[in-house]
Amino acid sequence: MNASKWRLGLVIVLVILIGTLFAQWADPSMLENHPLANLIRPDYCPSDSVAAYFPTWSGTTYEFAGEGLEFARFTRRITYATSELIQVEDLSGTNQVKIMEVTPQELRIVWTAEEFYEDRNLLEPWVKGERSTLPGREEVLVPLKAPLQEGESWSDGRFKREIYQVNSVVTVPLGTFHDVIVVKSKALDADDGVQYDYYAKNLGLIKRESRYESFTVTSTLEGLEVVNTHVYRRN
Asked: Residue 40 in 3-state DSSP?
């Protein structure tokens, strides 16, 4: 009897969920006051969204192995985050902090500071418009931009960029990743040097390769710690 009631209850819940999804599709406003609204995510991230390739995981640490230059090895930390803003710190020879905006349309670097060694949330003064209190300078850089299609190109404050490859399979020390997007960047004020950034879906940057006439500098993801609870690493 109990099993029958359990199955009946499950069927009822499934019917309600399916009806809720249909209602959200037909009229999104109907979902707001639905009793099961917390189980539905109308703000899901489509696979062709830029945000799918740069998750905003506060407390995440990426460890990159390096070849070709002393500072090719570095650690990247997402120290603070909101749904569309993240504070990213790259630790190598010099510690650099960036404020990034992540939307379905683009990944934008809006602020940068070098020699940053503080445990400080820069997102709050940024949102409040108190930018004079921030270290560093304002930026206009767009490392990744939709539509995520091969051959799409754009320019920002310092680089000419294009989506060089899509749906690539890339192997780094941490493992092999599919659905990788490769962005090719060339500095507007330099004749030599081309940079390739590799973004894995639901993970972010997994590889960076800077090619020059006489040498190549490569950084590849070898370790990942998510919110200080789950550690993934290959030695």
From this structure: coil
d(CA 218, CA 64): 9
Q: Can you tell me whether residue 192 is helix, strand or coil? A: coil
Q: Tell me the whole-structure pTM to 2 decimals.
A: 0.78
Domain 50-233 class, CATH top level: mainly beta
DSSP secondary structure string for all residues of 136-177: SEEEEEEEEESS--TT-EEE-SSEEEEEEEEEEEEEETTEEE
Q: Hey, where are the domains in the chain?
A: 2-39, 50-233
Range of lowest pLDDT (2-6, 97-101, 192-196): 2-6
Kindly provide the b/e burial profile for residues 76-101, where b requires at least 16 CB atoms within 10 angstroms of the residue's own CB. bbbbbbeeebbbbbbbbeebbbbbbb
Q: How far apart are CA 58 and CA 222, in angstroms?
A: 19
Q: What distance, in Å, lies between the first and last C-alpha atoms of the chain?
A: 53
Which run of H or of E encompasses 25? helix 2-26
Provide the residue type at 187 as one letter. A
* pLDDT tens string 51-71: 999 988 889 999 999 999 888
pLDDT tens-digit readout, 219-235: 999 999 987 544 444 54
